[in-house]
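Q: My labmate handed me this sequence with no annotations at all. I'd like to see what the chain might look like in three dimensions before we decide whether it's worth expressing. Could you predict it?
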Amino acid sequence: MIVALLGKAGAGKTTIAEALERITPDSFIIDGDDLRAETNNNDIGIDGREKNMHLGYSRAHWLSDLGFTVFVAMQAPIKEIREKYLDENDIQIVINNSGPNPKDDKGYNKNFSADYSDVDMEIEFVDFNAEELYNKIFPKVLVIARFQGIHKGHKIVMEVAKRLSPNITLALRVDEDDEIDLEKNILLASEVFPFADVIKSPDLDDPNEEWENFVSQYDIVVQGNPMVIEKFQKAIDDNKIKLKFVPRVGHVSATKIREAVKNGDEEFARRNIADPKVLELLKEIK
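A: Here is what I predict for the chain of 286 residues:
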């Protein structure tokens, strides 16, 4: 995900990026001034701005594709270039600074003209609070799962969630025949996916209303099991949440991994688990 922090020179874009980066898992900052110093690009005319924007946003797009959250702190006044690199999951914010701006006196904002007509969010630098801004700009994403032996397919699900937002909650449940108890699974998932807040989900036999109330605390639910989706379908139909459907990928399954461990085939398990800690837990319950 890319977060484009826009506005005049001296508006506070870099300061806000640094504050958000400190509390955002797996994140990077791309700063317009740093790029200019790196490339000796001192041209603040249209050509210089275009070169700086292409460089900054192409790097941000690359890092975003790798699963990182990238804060781009640069004026980026050209809408068409931003549109080339940003997609619907990315965020744009114009930073306004009503206080003293030292860069105005140095001429950085002389004849400043920008097209931010596609940007819906504006904040005042003097009023910003990093934690409040974090919760304001990043959608709350909920992943609902069992994860009875966390494997590569589960890792894909969590990577999908990371591309939607760094603000992720993983809700685990345990069904009647599951072998890994909920407390141990929550501890394991917290280690394997440290970027997520891991909690307990409702049980599958709980009333639909309870599921609907639970998921309605979030903005997006990541799920691929139709039986689970049915439990909160009304919340989707009422537009209380959005659903990101993730189909099952590949032939690997937690059941096959657990069976392999029981049968002494640790090589199969190692190839398919998401983290070595998973194998240790499975060997405990063997």
